[in-house]
Amino acid sequence: MDWGDPDTWRWIWLLAAVVFGVGEMAMAGSFFLAPFALGAVVAAIFAFVGVSLGVEWAVFLGVSIVTFLAMRPLARRLDRDDRSAGIGANRLLGQAAQVTEAIGDGHLPGMVLIGGEKWRAESTDGRPIAADTPVTITDVRGTRVVVTPRRGGPGSDTTDHQPPTTGRST
Asked: What is the pTM of this model?
């Protein structure tokens, strides 16, 4: 393969544009590889016109850098965490819930009732929380919510979260 051949660079730029474009779509986050895909497309156009390889590289770098800098404010605004608050399971954050099945020691899950929905739950600090304790949702981890006891509610004892003993050994 002759790396100095203009015909070769036409296809290299097009391949780079495809790789950057697919990478952008597959990557979490916003607009990190898109500027490089655009730069490669413009460099490919210049290669098909027949300019020198040095000009193609200068165009690729220039377009990529300018586009990257121009897209940063938009990418930051789209990546803000507060945009996802209230969407999907994140709508549960800060919501009040009631423990229906005791949450065990060491992050053993229990069940909570949140607005008519039952969710598997674990405590924030790994301490057990008794059934009927009012709690607040502090995090969502997959299909589980992480809860902390609410202060001052009925059944909330903030000093000891041990579930009631039944006299049976397990």
From this structure: 0.47
Closest CA relative to residue 35, chosen from 75, 87, 92, 2: 75
Tell me the pLDDT tens digit for each residue of 54-86.
Answer: 999 999 999 999 999 998 888 777 766 544 555
d(CA 49, CA 37): 19
Domain ranges of the chain: 6-79, 88-149
Q: Please report, as a single letter, which amino acid is at residue 102.
A: A
DSSP three-state, residue 142? coil
CA distances from 106 to 65, 103, 110, 118, 128 (A): 49, 9, 12, 21, 7
**CATH top-level class for 88-149?**
mainly beta
Q: Which residue has the tokens 């940063």?
A: 72
